[in-house]
Every structure is written in C-alpha cells, then in structure tokens.
Amino acid sequence: MKVYKYRALNGNNIDSLKENYFWAASKKTLNDPHEGTYSTEMIDDFFKKISSLEKIESSKDLKESFDSLEKKILECSIFSLSKDYSINSLWAYYADNHKGICIEYDLEELISKNEPMYQHFDINYVDNPLSISMNDVISENIFKITIGTKELSWSNEQEYRIVSDIPEKNYHRSDAIKSIFFGLQTSEDEKENLMRILANRNIQFKKICKDNNYYKLSSHNINNPFDVNNKITENEIPKYIIPEGKYIKDEYKEYIPYLYKVAQFMLSYSDCLELYDINFSQKSTIENPIIYANFKEKNSIYYSRQKLFIVKNMGSA
C-alpha cells in the first residue's frame, strides 16, 4: 500500500530522509483541537450499573484498566499520512505552498523494521465524537475509535495513521521511500540538492504538474543525474549466502538468477549490517516464487530480520 507525507524542505525533514526515520508526534502537539475526542457516556453507565450491583472490587479493577487505557491514548505518538499525493490543500498547508515535497512510502516497508510497535489504520470521519463501550476496550478496538476518528471537515486529507509505541524518532527501512514529488514552486537548487543527497537509493523523483482545464494535479518522472551504477558483481557475493543448485527444488531452478539479484541488492542495502542467507520461501508457489533474505538490520529492535522479494515484481534477472 502506498501512503504519502507532505513536507517542507527544511533541515529536519531532509535529515529524516537521509537517516530513514519518521517522527511520531505527541497527540497534544497535533493541529486538530478535537484530536482523540470521544464520548464516555456508555462507559460511565456501565460503571454505574456495576457499582449498583455492589461489585465494588470488580468495578475498581475495570476502572483502573480503563484509566490506564486512557493514559495510553493521551501519551501515544502519531505519524499522519495521506492516501493521495495530489491534494491541493495539503500541498499548500504542509508542503510550504508547493515549495516543498511529498514523499511516497511503501507502508509495509515503513513499519516492518519494528512492526509490533505499531498500530495503523484509515481515519474514520464522523459528524460527532463516537462513544466507547466496554466491548471496545476488551476487543482492543479503542484506538480506532479514539485516535482513528476525526471530525468530518478533515476528510479531504484522506488520512492514514500510524500509532507508535516509540515516541518521536522511528527508523524505517531505506527502501520504504519509493518516490519524492517536487511541488509546483520547488526551486531548482532545492531539487538538485535533494537528488544529490538521495542518489543511488532507487528513489523515483517526480514533478507535480497542473492542467489549467481542471482543478487537478498530476506528475511526471524526473531522472536523477547523480545516480551512479555501483552494482555488486556475482563474484563479490560470498558463496555461503546462496545454496548450491542441488539443494534447490527443480521447479525453482529457473529462478536461481533471482537469488543473485537479491544478494546484489542486500549487499548494497544500507539497512543490512550482515547478510546471513538467501533462499526460496516456503510461501513460494510455482506460479508465484518468493525469495527471502535473512539479515541483521540496522536500528531494529530484533537481532535477525527477514525481507521478502516477489520474483514477478523484480523485472529481469
């Protein structure tokens, strides 16, 4: 899934692109004064009924659990994105009136480095705050109702939201950044500077365009003149990384060149501190071969991580 972040071209935002992180902001710093607003009417009625049944201890325990959840909601960190790169008002408000950029991320790669630390979902736009029930608390649906709900007038932003257990700086995989769109008024110097900084990252740069016959924005591709081909040769790939042909199932032998293509990518991949092995995944089928790479990943909370590659999406080997 592709998601988008509109940004001004300032030092902090350029650093986040260079260092591969996103900033999960505190809920209280966001620009919606009703952020996280919800009704507790149903919950309040529930606790009143329990108290009337004289189940004091049960009521106390449940109330403490709910208070703990409310505190978690209050203290959570949020990264807000959009599902569209061509929203005029977002270019104006968040991308310095078209002098900035819009970043296209692959959602899976954006969260996969530390995935258990995140919840993510579409924003639901409503006329009035939703009321939460004890069922919502028990089913852990409470974040979608509170943090995942906004007032209807915000709906043009088409927001997709990541809620993080990691405050502020959250590292992501370097190939999470798929494209960068330059605004209508991004200066040539700013474009050149960013393309130089992000050269050889397999990032597609694009320029926003407008059509005077419609209130719509489109884009066209820009070649990065600073990209240099530093491809690793097969002779530079350690022999232990790829299994010998006799250990590969017959139905996958024709795809062996893709194992080397994955190895070439991983050995030049900035997130890969050490490459352990590459092979065909158990998720593979004859119609849809999938290759895995096990590696030590930079800035991950885990010692060993795995990255999957779908052969049909990899072009020619």
Question: Could you walk me through the main structural features you see in this protein, from its secondary elements to its overall organization?
Answer:
A hairpin with a 7-residue loop joins strand 14 (290-297) and strand 15 (305-310). The protein has nine helices and 15 strands. Helix content is 27%, strand content 27%. The chain has a five-stranded mixed β-sheet with strand order 1-4-10-11-12. Strands 5-8-3-2-9 form a five-stranded antiparallel β-sheet. The chain has 317 residues and is of the alpha+beta class. The two termini are 25 Å apart. The chain has helices at residues 11-19, 41-52, 56-75, 88-94, 107-111, 134-138, 142-146, 188-197, 256-267, and strands spanning 2-7, 21-26, 77-82, 101-106, 118-122, 124-126, 149-151, 159-164, 168-171, 177-182, 204-210, 217-222, 272-280, 290-297, 305-310.
Any key phrases for this structure?
single chain; 317 residues; alpha+beta; five-stranded mixed sheet; five-stranded antiparallel sheet; 27% helix; 27% strand
Strand element count: 15
Give the N-terminus to C-terminus distance in angstroms. 25 Å
Q: Which structural class fits the helix and strand makeup?
A: alpha+beta
Shape: globular
Question: How does the major sheet shape up?
Answer: 5 strands, mixed
Query: Percent of residues in helical segments?
Result: 25-40%
β-sheet strand percentage: 25-35%
Mean pLDDT: 90
Q: N-to-C SSE series?
A: EHEHHEHEHEEHHEEEEHEEHEEE
Tell me the radius of gyration.
24 Å
Contiguous runs where pLDDT drops below 50 for at least 5 residues: none
Strand order of the biggest β-sheet = 1-4-10-11-12
The total of helices stands at 9
